[in-house]
Amino acid sequence: MSPAVLGGLLGGLFGVSLLLVIRRLPFLRKPSIDDRIGPYLRDLGGGDVFVGVTDSGSPFAAILRLFGPSLRAGAVRLERILGAAASIRRRLARAGIDRSVEEFRIEQVLWGTAGFGAGLLVALVALSFGVGNPVGLLVLCGFLGVIGVLSRDTYLTSQVRRRERRLLAELPTVAELLALSVAAGEGPAAALDRVARSCRGELAVELQRVLAETRAGEPLVRALDGLADRTGLVALSRFADGLAVALERGTPLADVLRAQAGDIREANRRELIESGARREVSMMVPVVFLVLPVTIAFAFYPGAVGIRLIAG
């Protein structure tokens, strides 16, 4: 790396560091309205927005404590750029993650910073070997930062899908256990309590939340409707709606639960068959583009070599 490029990088790093220090001087910092009234509202639920993150065993606890104000400002700017807070809040609820939208934006900022740092490391190594253009490498760093921000959103979507698959896998067993409990003479609330205490998994946690809402004074039908709204799954919505209708109209609950368990197992079987058909089509890609050309090459290459020897 030439002395001019090295001097430019060091000068730019020194300038950015000096700018950050000057911006954080006490007489230049203008406290926001949240910072001014936050200490007075801490007992009422205000205060530090990172309490839920740092107290939950997050690996970013030390980073949040050190760079909390900067991360908060970055999360606010990212929210203004990306928006879609309602979609983020709904997907966090469907993934079973007890986080706010602002905490999720902070994680996106951290992922983007990690991507930018990785790109900066690659750029420094490339420049040390005299490879690449500094402007292009800087663009690469920014691109990796954007990829990091978007990767956290994609990872949240994958978390939602994994949890939904677990819920669908647990639903038939839970429905049959509820049917057995109701057929044994227990009431709907007692049957839900027994199944929630005896089972383990995502659906058992949701049932415990439903029972907690009913103990707090919420009607059981409304709590089941909230379960259907939180999960967003069609099968689970039908399960909750069937329970609610059976409770309201007095229909035999055990028969309804057994029928729903059978319907869910049939839907899972159809989905498994469809997934197998899609995998069968995708398996044709390596066969057609890898195995078949190699087979043709092994079949025709000896003949081509023999013809060339005879012709020579």
TrEMBL record:
The entry's keywords: Cell membrane, Membrane, Transmembrane, Transmembrane helix
Places the protein is found: Cell membrane
Taxonomic lineage of the native organism: Bacteria, Bacillati, Actinomycetota, Actinomycetes, Propionibacteriales
UniProt-listed Pfam families: T2SSF (PF00482)
UniProt-listed PANTHER family: INTEGRAL MEMBRANE PROTEIN-RELATED (PTHR35007), PILUS ASSEMBLE PROTEIN (PTHR35007:SF2)
Main location per the UniProt record: membrane
Residues in Type II secretion system protein GspF domain copies: 176-298
Membrane topology recorded in Swiss-Prot or TrEMBL: Multi-pass membrane protein
Name of the protein in question: Tight adherence protein C
Cellular component terms per the entry's GO annotation: plasma membrane
Transmembrane annotation, as ranges: 6-22, 109-129, 135-156, 287-311
Highest taxon of source: Bacteria
